[in-house]
Structure formats: C-alpha cells, structure tokens
Amino acid sequence: MSLVDKIWKNRDAIAVSMVFCSGPLNYAIRDGIGVAPNSSIFSLLFMFGGIFLFMPFRDLNKLYRNDTPLTFLALVYLFMTIAYMFIYTAEYYLPMAIKIYDSVVIFIVLYFLFYLSTVPESALRFNFLRYSILIGFLGCTFLLVYAAMNPNFVVGQRLAISFQGESEMDSMGNPHIYGRGAFFGIISSLIYIKYETKKLYLWLTYFALIIFIAVLILSQAMSSILSGFGAIALFLWHNNTVYTVARGIRKLFTKWYVWVIAILIFAKGIDFINKNQAIIELGYGVIERRLEKLANTLLPTDNSDDLFGEEVVTDQSAEGRVETLGIVKEALIENFENGYYHKMFFGHGYYALYVDVPMVEVYHSYGLFGLLLFLIFFISMIKYCWMEMRRPTSIISQFVAYGFVYFFIFTFTNGLIIDYNRWTFFIMVCRFMPTAQKHLIKLKEKKLELQQTK
C-alpha cells in the first residue's frame, strides 16, 4: 500500500487527530521554522483543514448518532448564546469582531458535529492513536530541540518557541499550546500502551510518553500539569489493581539491566548537577520567583504602613483573574441590594465581562438561567466520562473520557467559554460517549442477581 493510499484510508483518523494534537507542530512550522504565516487563519486551517477537505468524500447516507441527551444539551446552550448575541448584549457598541469570532467558533463546532456524525467508531481506533502520538511527538520534539539550540533559553524558563520580545508573554510564547499538545499525547500513549502487544511499538511509545511528560512539565502551564497528572492518576486507578502494580514493580526490578540503567542515570545526574550548578540555581530562581508572584497575588499582605517596605511583585495573569472575580462579586452584591433580580437570573448580557474563568463568565453574562443550562450539560458529560473510565467500550471513547479531564480543569481556571478547542472536544464527548441506559441495565441486572442470591 502506497503512502497516499494509507493516508486516504486513515483520513478520518488524521483529520480528527489534527484538531486536538497539532498545536505544537503548528507553532513549530509557523514560529519555529518560519515557513508559514503567523496568523490565526493559518492556525485554524492547519487544525480544521482536514475535516473540510474530506467532507465531500463522506457517505452522507449514513449518519451516526448516540442516544444520550448530550448533543441536545450542547445545541441548547449554543443556540442560547446566539440568542443572547443578537437580543441581549451587554453594550450596544460591542465590537463586531467579537460577534464574528464567536459566530465562526459556533459554525466550526456545528460543522464538526455534522462531520463526526458521518464517522463510524471503527474509523478511530488504533490508527487514530498512532497518528495522534506521531503528530504530537513531532511538535514536542521540535520544541525541545529548538529550546536546546536557542541561546536565549535558560533552565527554569517556560518552554516555548519564542524567547524574545518586549513583554513577558512574548518572551515565553503561549505555554498552554504546548501543554495541551503534550496532554493529548500522554492520553494517546497510555491508551495505546494498554492494547499494543508488539515490543518495538511499546518501547517507541514509552519514549514518546517520556517526551510528552517532559514538555508538559517544562511548559509550566499549571492547569495543563494538573490535568495531565490527574488524567494519569485516573488511568492508573481504573486500569490497575494493587496486585498488578506490585507484580509490575517486582518484575521490573528483577531485571539486571534495569539496575545498570538506574545506576548510570544516577551517576550521570550527579555529574550533571556538579558541572551545571550555576545554571540549575538560575532555573531554581526563575521557578521560585514565579511561585512567589502567585503567592503574592493570592495571599496579599498589607505593607502600606511600612515606608521602607519593598515593592511586592505579583503574577499579572492571576492578578487579572482576581480583579475580574472581584468585579463579578461586586456586581452580584449590587444586583441583590438594588433588586436587579433580572440580572441575577438572566445575567448582564452577552460578553458582559471577560472573566478568564469560564464557569464564572457563564454566570455573569447569562445569569442563573445560563449557568443552570451549562451545569446540566457539564455534569452530564462528567457522568458519561466517569462511566466510560469504569467500563471502557472503545478506544475513541476512552480517549474522550480521559481527555475530558483537561477541559474539566480549564472550565474552572482560564479561557473563554466560547472557544473552538473547548467546544470541539465537547462535541467529541457528545458523539462518542456510549448510552447510559446500557450501563443502567447492567447495574439493574447486577442488583437483581444480588437480591436473588440473598
């Protein structure tokens, strides 16, 4: 089979994996090598070009759907957003660019839902994991090589393509792009290792997994790190027992070459520390200052009475969230005291405030009404993903269940509520989560069996 035939056969797997795993590769081509324009349009085409390119060749006579209410709940929330966009805006002079952006995002999300309805589950199995690992590995490896060859990079700095610029963000790039790419690489690798039997592929996947974990940590995107290690913990919890873990550890340390490798790594590590102590101290100082900024932001101290007190440096990103959360709190108190109950129940209007905390943004813009709709949808996704972790039914559904951990964390930490990364993955949950009724029947059968045994 030629390369073209193989790509054509796996076109759905490639197109979907590009949507979620191509972030680091995108920035490597765009900002690292510099062979592509530095624009959002290129990034969107790079991520979603496949699903638009392959749609004309889909069999539209076969549409797949799930019996879960998730798709209906997602559509209800999206159409509520559209209604607010044209009926209840926070300000009449709201920039048209914001409406255009959200309209494009909603169009991409709805188109992605239609595209996935033409894709059978059988098209996204082992091949999907392989392409996800490959695409993520290329981007993360290029990032590590670029950092190693860049004289402006120092140990302890956030790992990114760009290390030059006037502002702090310009000098560090966007760490969440690389954190997200590494996260989905970790999820794909763990599920692939679970089912792969060939040792060569297993060792290659283990190597890729190490690269992904390294990029996740070095990117210093705290939300991504929490998501990554949270997903790893859940995967190990649901796919292992105490006995299998103990047996694996015992089997590992009975191999003589494992001890040799461990001793060599330990000796090389000590030698590296001794030779590069100044660089390590510099990196430690960078991390220490970052943690100090976060502590000063979240736990401020009043030094106004101290004339000789030093200026307190805070984390600008976290400080911005604290300020906007304060605005939301003040608005809530004002609405309650002045009797503006319509704002409490229906919000302050579309895009009333950029909070950078999606769950809080939903309440402030859409009120208790919008928050209730979103919570029903969000909690339903949690329920289905948890059931899939406990009783896996397919490879793609496991990928979706563990991948949802990332957007679960980010829904409470940072980002816009209407975002193409967030909602395209929500659509994956809607499409590939199995029906709850099937699990409920099994649970009822088990209860009946227990009652009969009693």
Question: What can you see in these coordinates?
Answer:
By secondary structure, the chain is mainly alpha-helical. It folds into 2 domains: 1-55 and 120-239, no CATH class; 58-114 and 341-454, no CATH class. 73% of the residues lie in helices and 0% in strands. The chain has helices at 3-9, 11-21, 23-33, 40-53, 70-87, 96-116, 126-149, 168-172, 175-195, 199-218, 222-239, 242-252, 256-275, 277-298, 316-338, 341-346, 358-390, 395-410, 420-432, 436-453. Residues 167-171, 304-310 and 436-448 have low confidence and may be disordered.
What's the layout of helices and strands?
Elements: H1 3-9, H2 11-21, H3 23-33, H4 40-53, H5 70-87, H6 96-116, H7 126-149, H8 168-172, H9 175-195, H10 199-218, H11 222-239, H12 242-252, H13 256-275, H14 277-298, H15 316-338, H16 341-346, H17 358-390, H18 395-410, H19 420-432, H20 436-453
Low-confidence stretches: 167-171, 304-310, 436-448
Number of helices: 20
Q: How many DSSP E strands?
A: 0
**Structural category:** mainly alpha
Q: Spell out the helices and strands N to C.
A: HHHHHHHHHHHHHHHHHHHH
Portion of residues in helices? over 70%
- Approximate strand percentage: under 5%
Q: What's the Cα radius of gyration? A: 24 Å
The N- to C-terminal Cα distance equals: 59 Å
Overall mean confidence score, pLDDT: 80
Number of domains: 2
Largest sheet geometry:
none
Rough shape?
Answer: globular
What would you say about this model in short?
The radius of gyration is 24 Å and the shape is globular.
Keywords for this structure?
mainly alpha, 2 domains, 454 residues, 20 helices
